[in-house]
TrEMBL record:
GO CC entries: MutSalpha complex
BP GO terms, sorted: mismatch repair
Keyword Oxidoreductase: no
Gene3D superfamilies, sorted: 1.10.1420.10, DNA repair protein MutS, domain I (3.40.1170.10), MutS, connector domain (3.30.420.110), P-loop containing nucleotide triphosphate hydrolases (3.40.50.300)
Entry's family note: Belongs to the DNA mismatch repair MutS family.
Residue numbers spanned by region Disordered: 1-24
Keyword annotations: ATP-binding, DNA damage, DNA repair, DNA-binding, Nucleotide-binding
Protein function: Component of the post-replicative DNA mismatch repair system (MMR).
Taxonomy, superkingdom: Eukaryota
Name of the featured protein: Probable DNA mismatch repair protein Msh6
Domain DNA mismatch repair proteins mutS family: 834-850
GO molecular-function terms, A-Z: ATP binding; ATP-dependent DNA damage sensor activity; mismatched DNA binding
InterPro entries reported in the protein's UniProt record: DNA_mismatch_repair_MutS-lik_N, DNA_mismatch_repair_MutS/MSH, DNA_mismatch_repair_MutS_C, DNA_mismatch_repair_MutS_clamp, DNA_mismatch_repair_MutS_core, DNA_mismatch_repair_MutS_N, DNA_mismatch_repair_MutS_sf, DNA_mmatch_repair_MutS_con_dom
């Protein structure tokens, strides 16, 4: 526990050669209470008990009594946080013991220290790097700090009647618990490696047993930014809304109330989020009810103003509170599940010591499922703001991940721009005016490459300002700095961390200065969106930052602050600091007056002597000692001089020391107060970042528009009742091959029906064409250029996809069940303004059943008149619709060559060109040949196929004969 660079003697060991011993026999592997059959939680419940808490463990008292004081302290903390890897501070090092040490060696390549039990560690300054590495691997990491020094420990023990040896150890407290979903970037942490949001999701479910339909309450947050989202919704049988939430805002940490989620929902979470941390919490004691969390929020200091301590609910929370309850302690009707979900979230954040800094930001938003307003709208265009893209469509169209749409469009320079682009792709606009504004902005940027390059140069230098805002807010929160154990922690690298905080702050200020230069680049732009977002209020929407930036620019010496690690404000910046300086100046005047009075009294030069608590002794020459009166107290002497204190001097010393202590106290809190001043303008800074993010996305789309043959889509709002898609020379945006064959696609336009049945050979490009149409539609509605020579579309309210053969093995769902579930969602929710992409429906069952279901779905969709591309290999289905004017037949063209007059050895050359009419065959034997199937088998298969085809043809002719008149019969007989 000594303040030196060496580890305490009890753990001062040498590394083991080559790290891990050949045969580990660590003591913790033999501890009886850690054996699987003996393990109990802190309340001594077994894993079979429904109330068992796996986050804790019972450690026997006799075991604790046999530990050293420091190790007993470690085990006591471990018993309450058994699921955490401890970084346990001893002196200047974080130590890992027992099972944690093994993890440290295996995952972090640390080295075992010599000794009886497993033990590894690293210097304090390495915390950020090592914790980030474990957290990214899915571990929960707890940082434990010393919050006493030996002197403080001794003072504490001196007040105890009979302190034991276990009392005589410096106090340690958990200061931070981190998972992938609960990270905040403190001065100890390394910066985020990705701009992506890693969400913490709190989930509540209420099942309707009669209908098997569930209602969900959700609360999710990106802790690095500090914005909460609350929502409540009724889901369908397939849990489409929950799946869409998980796709739009993918969580990496999910909490829920133990025993309340249905088996179906648990299975969905496990299958959809295989690597996310799932954490069940005990009812009420850990996962707070709606009334409990509202009470705790009201009683806490989260929403109290620092100046007057007045309480006010954040605006974003007010819609969730019952208006009849003046205190806001009752949830509003139909909002209880959402507030209950907030209860679980707040509990966890409190356990992780994060609730104060995150709640105090007061950023609460409502999450509304994107299809909410579409639910009651089947007759007209869904006038919601955005297109609905559900989880199935995100997956089937490959909007995210490798080889995805975002990979092609994302040329953003900033982290916050990248996050906004993802939001645009998840929710393309359904507002014509919004889309046109974006198109005009992108077009003007394309025409002004010089400005765009200058803008990108500035954007590329910007850090993640959105996350920096949250960091600065945390450092400026008075309640957190006062009550959080980090405020008591003894950090040996404290000066380094203080400098990091100052660097973050000054960097943020400097980069906002750069933002103002960025805004100036667009002074002569004409497009309405750019002018609105780059003109200062009130002419535009960009906030007036100059006055505030100038204030902080002159408030203190930035370079000196970065060098020293603390801020010394200039006059007029901090009233309390100014008053201290005035007090010190008055003291100096009084001291000068006192000294002058002493000079006059003794008639010679008099000086002060002494330092610190012995200052302001007057030093009198021995020749004048005779003038010393009864009020002078002799304190010391040197040759030729004697030193005295007077009552007045002692009073002046006391006043000076009080003033200096006051100054030190003010300076210690001054960083926080300056940060708090900055955070008072949080809404202004946040608004500026949002405008900047939008500009970054527009510039990214403009950069994309420069590549290849692109066009600006023509957008129709469907107000005239016409719904159509017309794409000329369209290309798949994610396939950049030079020899890609472009295609024209028309639905409900140019004599084409709104429903297209698409046929063609296997591997002929049907699925690619369908994805191409879906992706171009999304791009058009986010305001992007599209890869086509021309594109004209009516606004689409939702894209439905049924693409590919997907067995959901983990969920126990067959291909056919997955097909029908996705198809049921289409039939239930599609409107005439929807785009439906269905690929080979019915493949998961028998030919007859598959054909019948496909035919029934085609019939239902043609009645809905939604825009549909429907590919199939069921040629009997094509026959049924070849004269139907509600359906257009098309195929992916190919050339067929037959070798050695053997039809089974036919060679198909794909032309990848969309052509009119149906394709006569699917050419499956070509695929068999490409796959290496033996020619003997393909010949035999061809014979069987030819016989089956003849039988089918005979049936069609017989059916036609039965329906035909005399002339028709003669014609049919002639064909035979």
């Amino acid at each position: 526990n000594k303040k030196d660079s060496k580890r305490p003697a009890q753990i001062q060991n040498q590394p083991v050669s080559n790290g891990l011993p050949a045969t580990p026999t660590w003591p913790h592997l033999k501890f009886e209470f850690l054996q699987p059959e003996k393990i109990r939680d802190i309340n001594r419940k077994t894993p079979k008990d429904p109330d068992y808490d796996p986050k804790t463990i019972h450690v026997p008292t006799d075991f604790l009594n046999n530990q050293t004081p420091a190790m007993r302290q470690w085990w006591e903390l471990k018993s309450k946080h058994f699921d955490c890897v401890f970084f346990y501070k001893i002196g200047k090092f974080y130590e890992l013991y027992h099972m944690d040490a093994v993890i440290g060696v295996n995952e972090l390549s640390l080295t075992y220290m010599r000794g009886e039990f497993a033990h590894s560690g690293f210097p304090e300054i390495g915390y950020g790097r090592y914790s980030a590495s474990l957290i990214e691997r899915g571990y929960k990491v707890a940082r434990i700090e010393q919050t006493e020094n030996p002197e403080m420990m001794a003072a504490r023990c001196s007040k105890m009647a009979r302190p034991t040896k276990f009392d005589k150890v410096v106090k340690r407290e958990i200061c931070q618990v981190s998972t992938r979903g609960t990270r905040v970037y403190t001065p100890l942490d390394v910066e985020a490696s990705t701009p992506n949001s890693n969400y913490l999701l709190s989930l509540v479910e209420k099942c309707d047993l009669a209908s098997t339909i569930s209602s969900f309450g959700v609360c999710f947050i990106d802790t690095t930014i500090g914005e909460f989202y609350l929502g409540q919704f009724v889901d369908d049988r397939c849990n489409s809304r929950l799946l869409t939430l998980l796709a739009h805002h993918p969580p990496v940490h999910v909490i829920y109330e133990r025993g309340t989620l249905s088996q179906k929902t648990l299975q969905l979470i496990n299958n959809t989020l295989p690597v996310a941390l799932k954490e069940p919490l005990q009812r009420e004691s850990q996962f707070w009810s709606a009334t409990t969390v509202l009470k705790k929020l009201h009683e806490g200091s989260y929403f109290k103003k620092e100046n007057d301590s007045s309480f006010a609910w954040p605006e974003g929370l007010k819609p969730y509170l019952n208006e009849g309850d003046s205190l806001g302690l009752t949830p509003a009707d139909n909002k209880e599940l959402a507030i209950h979900a907030l209860g679980g979230c707040v509990y966890l954040l409190k356990e992780f010591l994060l609730e104060q800094q995150l709640l105090a930001q007061g950023c609460f938003n409502t999450y509304t499922p994107p299809d909410f307003s579409a639910a009651s709208s089947r007759a007209g265009l869904n006038y919601a703001n955005t297109m609905v893209i559900d989880a199935v469509t995100i997956k089937n169209l490959r909007l995210f991940g490798d080889g995805s749409l975002i990979g092609i469009l994302d040329r953003c320079c900033t982290a916050f721009g990248k996050r906004l682009l993802r939001e645009w792709i998840c929710r393309p606009s359904c507002r014509k005016n919004v889309i046109i504004e974006r198109q005009e902005a992108v077009q003007e940027l394309v025409d002004r490459m010089d400005v765009m390059q200058s803008a990108r140069a500035i954007l590329s230098t910007l850090p993640d300002l959105e996350r920096l805002l949250s960091k600065i807010h945390a450092q400026g929160n008075a309640a957190r700095m006062k009550d959080h154990p980090d405020g008591r922690a003894i950090m040996f690298e404290g000066p380094t961390y203080s400098k990091r905080v100052i660097v973050d702050f000054t960097t943020t200020l400097a980069k906002f200065e750069e933002v103002l230069k960025f805004i100036e680049l667009f002074d002569d732009f004409k497009s309405s969106l750019i002018t609105r977002y780059t003109r200062y209020e009130p002419d535009g929407e960009f906030p007036q930052l100059r006055e505030t930036l100038d204030y902080f620019k002159t408030a203190f010496d930035h370079e000196e602050a970065k060098k020293q690690g603390y801020i010394v404000p200039k006059k007029g910046v901090d009233a309390e600091y100014d008053s201290v300086l005035i007090e010190l100046a008055e003291n100096k005047k009084d001291l000068d007056r006192y000294l002058e009075k002493q000079k006059q009294h003794f008639g010679v030069k008099i000086t002060f002597h002494g330092a610190d608590r012995k200052r302001y002794q007057i030093e009198v020459p021995e020749s004048q000692v005779k003038k010393v009166g009864p009020g002078y107290e002799l304190t010391s002497q040197r040759k030729g001089f004697k030193r005295y204190y007077t009552a007045e001097a002692k009073e002046l010393l006391a006043r000076q020391m009080n003033a200096e202590e006051h100054k030190d106290k003010v300076l210690k809190d001054l960083n926080r107060r300056i940060f708090a001043q900055f955070s008072e303008k949080y809404d202004m800074w946040h608004a500026a970042i949002h405008k900047l993010a939008t500009m970054d996305v527009l510039i990214s789309l403009a950069d994309y528009a420069r590549n290849g043959d692109m066009c600006i889509p023509e957008i129709h709002d469907g107000s005239d009742g016409e719904v159509f898609i017309r794409i000329k020379d369209g290309k798949h945006p994610c396939i950049t091959s030079d020899n890609f064959i472009p295609n024209d696609t028309s639905l409900a336009n140019d004599d084409a029906a709104s429903f297209m049945i698409l046929t063609g050979p296997n591997m002929g490009g049907k699925s690619t064409l369908m994805r191409q149409v879906g992706l171009i539609t999304i791009m058009a509605q986010i305001g992007s250029y599209v890869p086509a020579s021309s594109c004209c579309i009516t606004l689409v309210d939702r894209i439905f996809t049924r693409l590919g053969a997907n067995d959901d093995i983990l969920a126990g769902q067959s291909t056919f069940l997955v097909e029908l579930s996705e198809t049921a969602a289409i039939l239930q929710h599609a409107t005439p303004y929807s785009l439906v992409l269905v690929d080979e429906l019915g493949r998961g069952t028998s030919t007859y059943d598959g054909t019948a279901i496909a035919a029934a779905v085609v019939n239902a969709l043609t009645k809905l008149k939604c825009l549909t591309l429907f590919s199939t290999h069921y040629h009997s289905l094509v026959e049924d619709y070849k004269t139907n004017k509600e359906v257009t037949l098309a195929h992916m063209a190919c050339m067929v060559e037959t070798e050695e007059e053997e039809v089974s050895q036919e060679t198909v050359k794909f032309l990848y060109r969309l052509s009119e009419g149906a394709c006569p065959k699917s050419y499956g034997f070509n695929v068999a040949r490409l796959a290496g199937v033996s020619s003997i088998i393909t010949k035999r298969a061809h014979e069987i196929a030819r016989r089956m085809e003849q039988e089918t043809n005979h049936k069609h002719i017989f059916n036609a004969l039965c329906k035909a008149n005399g002339a028709g019969i003669r014609s049919l007989i002639a064909t035979i």
